[in-house]
Amino acid sequence: MVPMKRRVVATPLFVSNLQAYLDEYAQRGAVRFVERLWRNYREMVENISTFQMMSPARKRVIQGKRVVVREYVLHAGARDFLVLYNVPDDDSEAVILLNIRIGGQNHFKWKMPL
C-alpha cells in the first residue's frame, strides 16, 4: 500500500531561517551548494510523510497538547541541516515544518531574525 501524500506547511520561523541560510550562501557565491540544498529540500517535502516511523522523535507538551517532533537530516553536500517537523495523527492534517538549523550547532534558534 502506498502512503497518502500529505500537504506540508512551514512555520514562519522555518521559512525565515531557511531563507537566511540560502541568502548567506548565495552571497558567498556557493551556487551549486544552494542548488543542491534546494533540490534536496524539495525532495524532502515530497517524501516527508513516508519518514514518519523511521525518523528520530522527541515528545513534547505544548500548551497542554502532546506533540511528537521528528528530525530529518537534509544533506546539502558540504553541510547538513537538521529539520524539525511534526506529523499530526490525523491524516487529513498537514505535516508542519517547525525549524531548521545547520548540523553541528548545539541548539536551535527559536527567534525570528531581525
How is the secondary structure organized here?
Elements lengths: L7 E3 L1 H16 L3 H17 L9 E6 L2 E11 L4 E7 L8 E8 L12
Number of helices: 2
Shape: globular
Strand arrangement in the largest pleated sheet:
1-5-4-3-2
Largest sheet: 5 strands, mixed
Q: What is the end-to-end distance?
A: 45 Å
Mean pLDDT: 81
Helicity, as a percent range: 25-40%
Unreliably modeled segments: none
Radius of gyration: 15 Å
How many strands appear in the DSSP assignment? 5
SSE sequence, one letter per element: EHHEEEE
Observed structural traits:
single chain; about 110 residues; alpha+beta; 2 helices; about 30% helix; globular
Describe the structure.
This protein has helices spanning 12-27, 31-47, and strands at residues 8-10, 57-62, 65-75, 80-86, 95-102. The protein is globular and about 45 Å long. The protein is an alpha+beta fold. It has a 5-stranded mixed beta sheet with strand order 1-5-4-3-2.
Summarize the structure.
This protein is of the alpha+beta class. Helices cover about 30% and strands about 30% of the residues.
